[in-house]
Specification:
By secondary structure, the protein is mostly helical. It contains 8 helices and no strands. It starts with a helix and ends in a 10-residue tail after the last helix.
Length: 208
Amino acid sequence: MQSVTYKLSESFILFVLFPVSLVLNYPLVVKLCLGVLGFLYVLFVLIRIEKLQLKMSSNLNWKAFWKHTLFKLLIISVVTVLYMVFVDVENLFVVVLNKPLLWVAILFVYSVFSVYPQELIYRTFFFKRYEALFSSEGLVIFINAVLFSLAHLFFQNTLVLLLTFCGGLLFAYTFKNTRSTTLVTIEHAIYGSWLFTVGMGSMLGFPS
């Protein structure tokens, strides 16, 4: 196990320096390569150093998970539909109504190739490596949400930062209580897919 100084330096590079650098104007291929290297480093640390087995637990409380997730989805649905009605009604459900095949394809690609890696990094890796460095549960959840929001800084959109901060709070809370990458990935995929479905996908980088 590395020292506290090493972990603090590691967290700064992975969760602050790199996300902020994406706002800067340097070649996209370099950004992609740095992102891939960072993800491979995270996997290496999780598997070889933290000795974490990346497999689904057999004792997950699916009933409680679906109860809580669907209740939160209901609230998110009402709030986002109202937002679209009053702010951007012409794009309300625009993709699912006009391009249903694209909608299905994007939801699949997003859930598998975007959400799962994000949750491995921002929940599984973050909590495994850094949770012990925080003085309280609330603080680790708050910092995790702030860093998750910072990861979306390159969109340069205040609403995106707010949405991802709120999402970060929900996902961090879920992971803190379940310790399941599987459950938090499903929750993240559901909420993100809903934002795309309701018509807010363009600001989050979804094709439309």
